[in-house]
Automatic annotation (TrEMBL), chain A:
It comes from the Bacteria. GO terms for biological process: cellular response to phosphate starvation. InterPro entries: BphY/WalK/GraS-like, HATPase_C_sf, HATPase_dom, His_kinase_dom, HisK_dim/P_dom, HisK_dim/P_sf, PAS-like_dom_sf, Sig_transdc_His_kin-like_C. Pfam families: HATPase_c, HisKA. This is histidine kinase. SUPFAM superfamilies: ATPase domain of HSP90 chaperone/DNA topoisomerase II/histidine kinase (SSF55874), Homodimeric domain of signal transducing histidine kinase (SSF47384), PYP-like sensor domain (PAS domain) (SSF55785). One of its GO terms (cellular component) is plasma membrane. Its main location: membrane. The chain crosses the membrane at residues 152-179. Residues 356-570 form the Histidine kinase domain. Residues 1-19 form the signal peptide. It comes from Sedimentibacter hydroxybenzoicus DSM 7310.
TrEMBL record, chain B:
This is Phosphate-specific transport system accessory protein PhoU. Plays a role in the regulation of phosphate uptake. One of its GO terms (cellular component) is cytoplasm. Homodimer. Belongs to the PhoU family. SUPFAM superfamilies: PhoU-like. Its main location: cytoplasm. Pfam families: PhoU. Keywords: Coiled coil, Cytoplasm, Phosphate transport, Transport. Gene3D superfamilies: Phosphate transport system protein phou homolog 2, domain 2. It is found in: Cytoplasm. Residues 17-103, 119-204 form the PhoU domain. GO terms for biological process: intracellular phosphate ion homeostasis; negative regulation of phosphate metabolic process; phosphate ion transport.
Length: 570, 219
């Protein structure tokens, strides 16, 4: 802008000064030429009397006289009516060509006078001829050189060039000052745009009146932009709040697989919770898990949704890969990661459970069918054997029934259909009864069974609590050593009712401790047959405890005994 | 111009991470091949080794092209020279993993002279070192790189333990000698991998600070 303005100013001044110099040279030349002609005409007019030119002596006298009065050379020529040159002061001894057809001579014979300017292309001077009749037969012609217009121009050229240079300097300085002056308020406007667009500060800044509409526009725009920014901020914050509080991992990729957005859960689930997303970073910087990366590639390539399960340190994650497509082209990808560890573990437990339950139910049935078949086929005939085998069938049948009863009881506790049968019961009475039931069994196995209890009352279903004690003490007796002991206790502490059953038995290894309450879970699978039981006992205990908001704790050292503590809130 | 150069550096960075991913997979697979006597896994390591070699060539060409065409200075030059040094260490890790896989193929149809206890531990420690050195590179994490350098001592100690155990085994029965030497070789390869991982971590520190760490020195 500044440069253009400057160039325009310079161009205008150059053009105008050129025009002026051309016109000046023309006027100057015209004046000069007119003056030159005038002089010649005057000289001729004054000296044209015939007497001055009648013989050679008179001619020479006149010529010398005239030449002595002027400071330039004049050529004198006398031509007769036939066009022959009678006298010429420049070519005295030469024979000159016929001058009859020269325009000035011709005109002089006809009209008494004539003039002509012969322009020269090569010489920088023109010749001016002026002729007048001096008598009927002779014409006197005077001629002198005058500078051509070009010559005049060339003569004054240095002056013009000098004035151009001077002009350039002056224009340069003036234009600079001028341009600066024009641009100053605009620069001010640009520099103080913040103040100008701010309504409060606006008054303090001086700008051109003519620029006021612009600054008003700026203010309007600024308001709009601020509004947009606020809207965008609000939207972004909303999205951030949503993604940051999502339990699921969330990752957004662009078409180069650079991460545009990732939430905290996403980082944790991928296993790179230190990941810091400043600019766009490629997905490969987040995880180098080849399986996930190849699935993402596949999803990008084929533009289809993919769900993929991945395991990371015992946790299971499901990746939902959704390509974001614009018509045919995939322009990005949305990845949701769900933690499916609980579901996956539950699946494993469920499949183990159904395998266990069918095994537990099938084992007694196989025995029953086997012996029944032997008897049916008549392979066993003697009464003793029949007695023995039918009692085994009977036992297995009873076992089956107790198993089914346990399963039913368990589901009943789970559903808690007997809740309205809750009454206030004395736990000491319940324990007393259970101990007396199991005393015989303990004596058979040479185990010392004892209990310590005070009168503690609790609102519960009598049968359930009795079941709980029975199962705990029964286990304590069953998994005990020869001459071992079992102590059951009930006491109050810190507002809790605490029941504890402690034995000196085989103990439970650490890795089994958290699993013993699962249905059908057996620490020692091969021993289960000898000790009997359905593998549901502790599972029932756990469900009853949970029913009354109790907590179960197992303290056990393998080979040293076990203590199972159940804590009920009062 | 600068913009394009930055883009090229970014691509170089991603290529290095990719190569890092390959060496991680390679050493993990070779450890599995050894411990589970899995021939399929051992074959997979061979394939990975080819991929790693190709990757090394690609990155090397890329680096040289950048050096010649862009004539980088200061930190740019440091990044590229670091890349050139790192790929050498990465490639060596790939080679060592392949060597382990080769011995595993041979051991796959033998009974181990003793249950492998310390070798899996050592493998785990080296895998972790390699992983974390790549992580340190990805995240430009100087602290993590320093930790990796420190962990090399763990691997070195395990190597000493394994060596002593194997000597005992040979003293018990000279029949054990052949396998004991194979296992010793494996332990040595793992120890070398640990050294290379340490080198990578050192290069990471160099690319961040511009100072090369002298082995054992604290920065």
């Amino acid at each position: 802008m500044k440069r253009r303005l400057f160039l325009i100013i310079l161009l205008i001044s150059f053009l105008s000064s050129s025009a002026v110099s051309i016109v000046t040279s023309k006027v100057y030349y015209d004046l000069y030429a007119a003056d030159a002609k005038n002089q010649i005409q005057t000289i001729l007019g004054l000296t044209k009397e015939e007497s001055n030119w009648k013989d050679n002596q008179a001619i020479n006298l006149s010529v010398n006289k005239i030449l002595s009065t002027v400071n330039y050379s004049i050529r004198f020529t006398i031509v007769d009516i036939d066009g022959d040159v009678v006298y010429d002061n420049r070519a005295k001894n030469e024979v000159l060509e016929n001058h009859k057809d020269r325009p000035e001579i011709k005109s002089a014979f006809q009209n008494g006078r004539g003039e002509y300017i012969r322009r020269s292309d090569t010489i920088s001077t023109d010749m001016y001829y002026y002729a007048e009749k001096i008598n009927e037969n002779e014409v006197l012609r005077l001629s002198r050189e005058i500078s051509s217009i070009n010559q005049v121009f060339i003569n004054i050229l240095p002056l013009i060039v000098f004035s151009f240079v001077a002009l350039f300097v002056v224009v340069y300085i003036c234009a600079n000052i001028f341009i600066k002056k024009i641009l100053k308020p605009i620069n001010l406007l640009a520099g103080s745009i913040n103040e100008i667009t701010d309504d409060k500060k606006h008054k303090d800044v001086y700008i051109y009146e003519e620029l006021e509409p612009i600054s008003r526009r700026f203010r309007e725009q600024r308001l709009k932009i601020n509004q947009y920014i606020n809207e965008l901020k609000y939207e972004r914050d909303t999205i951030n709040i949503i993604t940051d509080n999502m339990r699921e991992g969330f990752i957004l990729l662009n078409k180069d697989k650079n991460i545009l957005s990732i939430n905290k859960s996403g980082k944790e689930m991928v296993g790179n919770d230190k990941f810091d997303l400043q600019n766009e970073r490629n997905i490969i910087e987040l995880t180098r898990n080849k399986n996930i990366l190849s699935k993402i590639d596949l999803s990008f390539k084929e533009n289809k949704h993919i769900a993929y399960d991945s395991e990371n340190d015992g946790n299971y994650f499901r990746y939902y890969l959704s390509p974001v497509a614009d018509k045919e082209n995939v322009t990005g990808m949305l990845i949701l990661i769900e933690d499916i560890t609980i579901t996956k573990n539950a699946e494993i437990i469920r499949s183990e459970f159904s395998a266990n339950v069918s095994h537990e139910l099938k084992t007694p049935l196989t025995t029953i069918i086997g012996f029944a078949e032997l008897i049916k086929e008549g392979l066993i005939t003697d009464v003793d054997s029949i007695k023995k085998y039918s009692s085994m069938i009977n036992n297995e049948g009873l076992r089956l029934i107790s198993l089914i009863e346990d399963i039913m009881r368990l589901s009943k506790i789970e559903e808690n259909t007997d809740k309205n049968e809750d009454t206030i019961i004395n736990l000491k009475d319940v324990l007393n009864k259970v101990v007396s039931l199991l005393e015989v069994k303990a004596e058979d196995l040479n185990i010392n069974l004892s209990f310590e209890a005070t009168d503690i009352y609790m609102k519960a279903n009598y049968n359930y609590i009795s079941e709980l004690f029975y199962n705990l003490i029964d286990n304590a007796i069953k998994y005990n050593k020869e001459n071992g002991s079992v102590i059951a206790k009930i006491y109050e502490k810190d507002g809790f009712i605490i029941t504890s059953v402690k034995d000196t038995g085989v103990g439970i290894a650490k890795e089994h401790q958290h699993r013993i309450f699962e249905r059908f879970y057996r620490v020692d699978k091969s021993r289960s047959k000898d000790t009997g039981g359905t593998g549901l006992g502790l599972s029932i205990v756990k469900h009853i405890a949970e029913l009354y908001k109790g907590q179960i704790k197992v303290e056990s050292i393998e080979g040293d005994g076990t203590e199972i503590i159940v804590k009920f809130p009062q | 111009m600068r913009n394009r150069f930055d883009k090229e550096l970014e691509i170089l960075n991603l290529e290095l991470i990719k190569m890092g991913g390959l060496i991680e997979e390679s050493i993990e697979t070779s450890a599995k091949a050894l411990i589970n006597k899995d021939l399929e896994m051992a074959k997979r390591v061979n394939e990975l080794e080819v991929e790693i070699d190709e990757m090394e060539k690609t990155i090397e060409n890329h680096c040289l092209k950048l050096l010649l065409q862009q004539q980088p200075v200061a930190s740019d030059l440091r990044i590229i020279s670091t890349a050139l040094k790192m790929i050498t260490d990465m490639e060596r890790i790939g080679d060592n993993a392949e060597d382990i896989a080769e011995i595993s193929k041979f051991l796959a149809n033998q009974k181990f002279i003793k249950d492998l206890v310390h070798i899996p531990q050592m493998a785990e420690a080296t895998i972790s070192m390699v992983k974390r050195s790549v992580d340190a590179f990805v995240n430009k994490d100087k602290e993590l790189a320093l930790k990796v350098c420190k962990d090399d001592d763990v691997v070195d100690n395990l190597f000493q333990i394994i060596k002593t155990e194997l000597i005992e085994k040979i003293q018990e029965d000279t029949e054990n000698g052949e396998q004991a030497i194979d296992l010793l070789m494996i332990a040595k390869y793992l120890e070398r991998i640990g050294d290379h991982a340490e080198n990578i971590a050192e290069w990471v520190i160099f690319s961040i600070t511009g100072e090369h760490r002298i082995r054992g020195e604290k920065i």
